[in-house]
Amino acid sequence: MSQNKKNQFNDDQIKLSRFAKALSHPARIAIIEHLAKVNSCICGEIVEIMPLAQSTVSQHLKELKDAGIITGEISGPKICYCINRETIYDMEKLLKELLSVINKENSDKKGCC
Amino acid sequence: MSQNKKNQFNDDQIKLSRFAKALSHPARIAIIEHLAKVNSCICGEIVEIMPLAQSTVSQHLKELKDAGIITGEISGPKICYCINRETIYDMEKLLKELLSVINKENSDKKGCC
DNA sequence: GACTTTAATCGTATATTTACGATAATGGAT
DNA sequence: ATCCATTATCGTAAATATACGATTAAAGTC
C-alpha cells in the first residue's frame, strides 16, 4: 500500500499482453491458422470460412493488423492479407522468455505446492 | 458477446484463446513472472508489488486461477499461490502447434507479401 | 458515366473487462 | 469471545470487446 504501487508495468509485459490480447479470440486464431495454412495472401475467402458476418471479420482483421500480426495490401478491389513473420518472431521471443522464467528452476523449487 | 458463436470454432482454438485471454493484461503477466521468479508459494505480497488495489489484484488472481494457470491453497488466513505447471505445459503445446503452422513452409511461400 | 465487387467503417446493442471502495469471511492471536 | 490480518466478494461505474446490418469507399468492368 505504498508508493511502490505507482510502479508501472514494463514494456515487455505490456507488449506480450497486447500479443496475447490479439490471440484472445478463437476467430482470430482461426484467421491466423488459415493464413498460415494457405501460405500465401488470401483475400475475401476468410469471410467464407468464418461463422461471422463480413463486418465482424473485418473488425477481427483490423485488430490483428493493429497488433502487427498480419499485413494487408491493396490488390485491386480486394485486400491481400498475410502473416507478418517479424512480429510473430517478436511474440515468440517474448513468449519464450516468459516460459523460460516459469520453467527454469523446476529442480530446486521449494514452496508448498 | 451478444451472440455466442464460439462453439463454431474447434477445441484447440478455444483453449488457446482462453489461455491468451488470461495473459492479455500486463498485471497478470507480472503476477505470473513474480510467482515464477520466487519459485515458491508466495502469499500476500503480490498486492504490494502491484500498482493496483487489493480487490483488483484479487480479481486478476481469480482469472488466472479460473484459467488453471495458478493454484491457490489455503494456508492459515493467507492464501498460497503458485504456478500450475501442467497447465503451462498444455499452453506451451498449443502455442508451439500454432507457431509451427505459421513457421512451417517458410521456404516455398508464394503469395505477394 | 453507371454497375459490380470487395472490404472498411458507421451506428448500435449487448456483454465483458477493469477498476475501486466497502463489506464479508476466514483463521490466528490475544 | 474479541481483535487483527488477510483475502474474497459485492456493488458499481467506466471502458472495451463483440456482433450485426447498413452504408460508404475504392477500384475494376461494362
Describe this structure in words.
The structure is a homodimer. Chain A is mainly alpha-helical. The first copy, chain A, has a single domain (about 15-100), classed as Winged helix-like DNA-binding domain superfamily/Winged helix DNA-binding domain (Arc Repressor Mutant, subunit A, Orthogonal Bundle), CATH 1.10.10. Helices cover about 55% and strands about 10% of the residues of chain A. The first copy, chain A, has 5 helices and 2 strands, in the order ααααββα. Chain A has helices at about 10-20, 25-40, 45-50, 55-65, 85-105; strands at about 70-75, 80-85. A two-stranded antiparallel ribbon of chain A has the order 1-2. In chain A, a hairpin with a 2-residue loop joins strand 1 (about 70-75) and strand 2. The first copy, chain A, is elongated. At the A-B interface, helix 1, helix 2, strand 1, strand 2 and helix 5 of A face helix 1, helix 2, helix 3, strand 1 and strand 2 of B. Chain B binds a DNA duplex (30 and 30 nucleotides) through helix 4.
How many strands, which pairing sense, and closed or not: the largest β-sheet of chain A? 2 strands, antiparallel
Order of strands in the sheet with the most strands of chain A?
1-2
Q: How many H/I helices of chain A?
A: 5
Which regions of chain A contain 5 or more consecutive residues with pLDDT less than 50?
A: 1-6
What's the shape of chain A?
Answer: elongated
Briefly note the CATH topology name of chain A.
Answer: Arc Repressor Mutant, subunit A
Quaternary organisation: homodimer
Give the strand content of chain A.
5-15%
* Rg calc of chain A: 18 Å
